[in-house]
Amino acid sequence: MKSFDAIVIGGGQAGPFLAARMVEKGMKVALIERKFLGGTCVNAGCMPTKTLVASARAAYVARNSAVYGVNIPGEIAIDMKVVRARAETVTMNARNGLIGWFAGMDGMTVIYGHARFEDPKTVSVNGETLTAPRIFLNVGARPVIPDLPGINDIDYLTSTSIIHLDTLPRHLAVIGGSYIGLEFAQMYRRFGAEVSVIEHGPKLASREDEDISDAIADVLRSEGIDIHTGVSDIAFARSSDGITVATDSARIDASHVLIATGRKPNTDDLGLDAAGVISDKHGYITVDDRLATNVDGIWALGDCNGHGAFTHTSYNDFEIAAANLLDGADRKLSSRILAYALYIDPPLGRVGMTEKQARASGRKIMISTRPMSRVGRANERGETKGFMKVIADAETKKILGAAILGIEGDEVIHGIIDAMNAGTTYPALQWSVPIHPTVSELIPTVLGDLKPV
Ligand SMILES: Cc1cc2nc3c(=O)[nH]c(=O)nc-3n(C[C@H](O)[C@H](O)[C@H](O)COP(=O)(O)OP(=O)(O)OC[C@H]3O[C@@H](n4cnc5c(N)ncnc54)[C@H](O)[C@@H]3O)c2cc1C
Ligand SMILES: NC(=O)c1ccc[n+]([C@@H]2O[C@H](COP(=O)([O-])OP(=O)(O)OC[C@H]3O[C@@H](n4cnc5c(N)ncnc54)[C@H](O)[C@@H]3O)[C@@H](O)[C@H]2O)c1
């Protein structure tokens, strides 16, 4: 049996950085990864998809260039092989960067293989056993495949397999209308495919307020995406030239089907029982405010603890664990203000509470909205879809949450993220002097328009 000061299982967005910090402190660390360093984000998530989104945007801009007085003669053709190769290059550069970084680290042992607990201090991998007084779980999540009629008779795509596609589908049917589904739906529409989104909930992106969900649907419909919400009885069958997707209200003659109905944690094959680690009914590992599990010496970080489903929340788990265990700090999960973006174009930047959540909290609230058509920068760029919305506490004057669906919304939201993290009140922000002409320059105006509801 090999002994280490710490074992990290999973090389996603928390584990490798924590492992690196531990060896920096002179500890002997084993990092076990069953597939690729960098995990979902680098290999099958954010990095390849945002690279594909960039190709899709280039196609969109080229097709609409005449509006700007730029005439591109002939048809705008998409070379899917180049599109795919570009995404692979971005992934490989990031993955190889991590591999090189770890190869040069004294005290670090990287092991490729599937790890499983033997007992609370022992893990087996590739037929070997390793032991350490500290074990960190960063095992991430994978796509959920719903048990729908006919699904096993068809070749469906997931978010992992679709990034390797190098041909253009005739008609892509996307099952699930949330982050993954909507990003791929718009992307493939812009590449030139017919696209249908089939969502069983009443709205797209159902975690958002209804006005945001409706505006997202308008953006996607305006590009010719066929959207079906409130759908039931989804069933698949092979057809002569593809796949028929039948629902209670429609029949779609698709060539490809993407399943984008959520993700589940990779905890079912980790031997959690052998270690006595508790998880909830969905398989998310139960952790306290400092990411410790119920078993002394075992922590769970990233998507597998169910407290975040984003790269930045996983990385923040690393920061919390490293600060507490290595720097003598007392950082807590509950201090995190959740922020994220949905990378359709224009993107949705989000932070804190939705209006629905703020109302449900029983606070007296104030709301302000502004359409992007009343933002100079958006007009100058000819991209006026979407709107901004800020929710504040009428008594404390603190900002509770915001949504910016519009050009640069994923960047502009950071002004509000920073203000919320600094605990600033909204009247203080009204005195800032932003730069003209930006989208951000309208934030003080939006705050000035906050009205009690
Ligand atoms: C298509 C898509 C797009 C996304 N886009 C964004 C985005 O734009 N922004 C954003 O913030 N987030 C995005 N996400 C989410 C983001 O990728 C994840 O939240 C993030 O990668 C989670 O990191 P993690 O460290 O928790 O786990 P992961 O990155 O999933 O890493 C877990 C690692 O553990 C390994 N592993 C699992 N079990 C074992 C085992 N038993 N033994 C050894 N190794 C094991 C896995 O192979 C994997 O490498 C996207 C996700 C997808 C699928
Ligand atoms: N921009 C980003 O940060 C980004 C991008 C992609 C993914 N992600 C992460 O990946 C995770 C998973 O994303 P996702 O979009 O797959 O999951 P999700 O849980 O956000 O959404 C799944 C959607 O599928 C629908 N659905 C579920 N079962 C269905 C069925 N049988 N038929 C029809 N619709 C069904 C749900 O109602 C929901 O709208 C997210 O939680 C997110 O954190 C983030």
Automatic annotation (TrEMBL):
Keywords: Disulfide bond, FAD, Flavoprotein, NAD, NADP, Nucleotide-binding, Oxidoreductase, Redox-active center. Transmembrane segments: none annotated. Its cofactor is FAD. FAD binds at residues 50, 303. Coiled coil: none annotated. The active site is at residue 436. NAD(+) binds at residues 176-183, 199, 262. Disulfide bonds join 41-46. Residues 259-316 form the FHA domain. Binds 1 FAD per subunit. One of its GO terms (molecular function) is NAD(P)H dehydrogenase (quinone) activity. Belongs to the class-I pyridine nucleotide-disulfide oxidoreductase family. This is FAD-containing oxidoreductase. It comes from Rhizobium leguminosarum.
